[in-house]
Amino acid sequence: MTLDTLVMQVFSGFSLFSVLVLMALGLTIVFGLMGVINMAHGELMAMGSYATYVTSVVFQRYFPELMGWYFIIGIGVAFLVTFAFGFLLERCFIRFMYNRPLDTLLATWGLSLVLQQLFRQVFGPKEVSVPTVQWLQGAWKVSEGLELPLNRIFIIGLTFVIAAAVFVFLYRSRWGLRIRAVTQNRAMAGAAGINTARVDSVTFALGCGLAGIAGSSFTMLASTGPVSGQQYLVDTFIVVVFGGVESLLGTFLSAFAIGQTQISLEYLTTGSMAKAITLLVVIVLLFFRPNGLFATKVRR
């Protein structure tokens, strides 16, 4: 393996890592902090992708001179759409199923099927794609035999920015303090005057919004279909569980390890075999560390 090939493999691993992190950050909040098994998380990613697609269509039709900015706006639209949907979903549906994990799993799985069918009805069964903005076209030529696509570089950079923003929100803001207080001791947080119901709604909506950003980023890497989100759902759950369900750092490092391992194995074997071996390695490691790499003690 040449140096250029090695660098390209690492870069490809970072590309997979970026999607996994953006998906897993939302799932870490929803599953890790709230204990909600949201099987529709992949469809929220697809919703973000479709929101970006609709944004591109609107800009192409009504604001063609601003097409260079549609993707940035599309990221914001994807976040707002999925955040609002998540907020309403928690208010009208999820809040009645807390502490009922099996019911939540089945209900959100049913919701995922409903959303998939809704996507088929609205956008059709075929995959849709968005145009790459001009400033993300082309590649950065590192050497004579190595070029790194600009759109993937942007997505990787966006991942680090979003991860830093989530960290600041959870650990440096008043809302983050409330979320962590409710997570660690709900009864005491309520006794201290924190509106735990509102915190639940905002927390769940934030996790959904992050899935929307993941979906928006996904449009720069591949086309979007009704079941696109399901392709990453299992991997995302593995990332969250392997990293530690309440740990942002664990999620970050777990996504990096799984992304790099899977891409490296794909170079040596096939895609399906690489996933199988990666899953086997994770299962073995979880046997020795059942709470994940970075387990956090939480009082319910």
Summarize it.
72% of the residues lie in helices and 3% in strands. It has 11 helices and 2 strands; from the N terminus they run ααααββααααααα. It has helices at residues 3-33, 41-62, 70-92, 101-123, 150-172, 174-184, 186-191, 196-218, 230-243, 248-268, 271-288; strands at 139-143, 146-149.
Anisotropy-based shape: globular
Number of strands: 2
Low-confidence stretches at least 5 residues in length (pLDDT < 50)? none
Distance between the termini: 50 Å
User: What is the CA-based Rg, rounded?
Assistant: 19 Å
- Side by side, the strands of the main sheet go 1-2
Mean pLDDT: 86
Helix content: over 70%
Category from helices, strands and their pairing: mainly alpha
Order of helices and strands: HHHHEEHHHHHHH
For the biggest sheet, the summary is: 2 strands, antiparallel
| Share of residues in strands | under 5%
Q: Output the number of helix runs.
A: 11
The number of distinct structural domains comes to 1
Protein name: Inner-membrane translocator
Pfam family, one: BPD_transp_2
Keywords: Amino-acid transport, Cell membrane, Membrane, Transmembrane, Transmembrane helix, Transport
Organism: Pseudomonas syringae pv. cilantro
Index terms:
300 residues; 11 helices
Account of the protein in words:
It is built from 11 helices and 2 strands, in the order H-H-H-H-E-E-H-H-H-H-H-H-H. It has one domain (10-228). A hairpin with a 2-residue loop joins strand 1 and strand 2 (146-149). The chain has helices at residues 3-33, 41-62, 70-92, 101-123, 150-172, 174-184, 186-191, 196-218, 230-243, 248-268, 271-288, and strands at residues 139-143, 146-149. It has 300 residues and is mostly helical. The protein has a two-stranded antiparallel ribbon with strand order 1-2. Helix 1 runs antiparallel to helix 8, helix 2 (41-62) packs across helix 3 (70-92) and helix 9 packs across helix 10. The protein is globular and about 65 Å long. It is found in: Cell inner membrane.
